[in-house]
Amino acid sequence: MQRCIPVFLDEEIVHQYYNGYCNNILWPLFHYLGLPQEDRLATTRSFQSQFDAYKRANQMFADVVSQHYEEGDVIWCHDYHLMFLPKCLKEHDRNMKVGWFLHTPFPSSEIHRTLPSRSELLRSVLAADLVGFHTYDYARHFVSACTRILGLEGTPEGVEDQGKMTRVAAFPIGIDSDRFRRALELPTVKERICELKKRFAGRKVMLGVDRLDMIKGIPQKILAFEKFLEENPSWHDKVVLLQIAVPTRTDVPEYQKLTSQVHEIVGRINGRFGTLTGVPLLHLDRSLDFHALCALYAVTDVALVTSLRDGMNLVSYEFVACQNAKKGVLILSEFAGAAQSLGAGALLVNPWNITEVANSIFTALTMHPDEREKRHRHNFAHVTTHTAQEWAQTFVSELNDTVVEAQIRTRQ
Ligand code: ADQ
């Protein structure tokens, strides 16, 4: 059986659909960043052609799915790139069982209603039988958008349109926590842990791991670290922040600007607080392999996740999964979906408030071991029980049930 079937898109479609409509319009909008500021007018002018490309690309996915579809298959569409797909699939065969899951936040209906194609996108998603989000808030925003923009009726189960019920619910994602725990037992990872401990001996290790994306709040994070250093001279040679930022969407100008901005702040901080023997901030523009990442998570004392918005944020889960020995502290943005599941164990912060984040860094570095243990235990229990496997099984089983219910209603 083929487990993966590619859908080939030509360069023009990739430009208009993927770089354009998906990453220049939907991604910033869903993260409350609005449309790109400088080329707002150009974006508005090219909006329709980008949306047409978006629909064409989704239709191409639908054509490939339809070619391989067999009766009884369940189809699960993922993310904001494929909001038009449920409609295309149902037009092909209304008996297909179709689910759609959004990995980003779904914003307040007041944000969504600024989108010129707001109604068409909502109606396409509503063609699905089950619509899922990471949190109840996102689900609630989606239902509000359907009631306010389309005038439909929202119920506790979802949205009803002309007798067709679309179930809308929260399915918070998790990670494969066992994979991380198994990795920590491998000799190569243990060796890396020893090397890192030697390398950073005498210093507390703080860690940030993000795609270099404006939603991840990397400039805000390192500005907060700078403020912490300004206000706590006694910590200057006792702490290091490792920021691992994997470059992403490098052909989009906004992302190129972000990279230069981050490099400039990093240079300034190291110039101000570095000594001949070391710098307080190590910033790497690259991704790490899985074992290197596990070792880094394991030696970290404080993880800093300061997303300005984030659907969930799995880095926070991965850090917790690797911390059974150390019981480090997680500083977590209240605007990440993960704040709803790991909020009781983490130190929650508003990433825009640099003073608050700087104070939380101090609290985390000086926290009593009993308090760290209590907080870690809470989060570890969550991360190891709410796994990726459980997430997928719950969604698919609920998708099956939804369709079964619909069939029962038809029979009545
Ligand atoms: P992302 O925005 O990519 O995902 P996140 O959930 O943090 O964000 O997942 C990132 C993944 O990439 C993690 O597994 C992490 O380990 C890895 N990664 C990041 N930087 C790395 C680096 N420098 N080196 C190696 N690995 C790195 C989207 C949404 C999130 C949502 C997920 C899942 O934006 O909000 O949690 O989907 O639904």
Automatic annotation (TrEMBL):
Keywords recorded for this protein, A-Z: Glycosyltransferase, Transferase
EC number: 2.4.1.15
Enzyme class: transferase
Protein name: Trehalose-phosphatase protein
UniProt source species: Dioscorea alata
Shown segment, full-protein numbering: 1 to 412 of 780
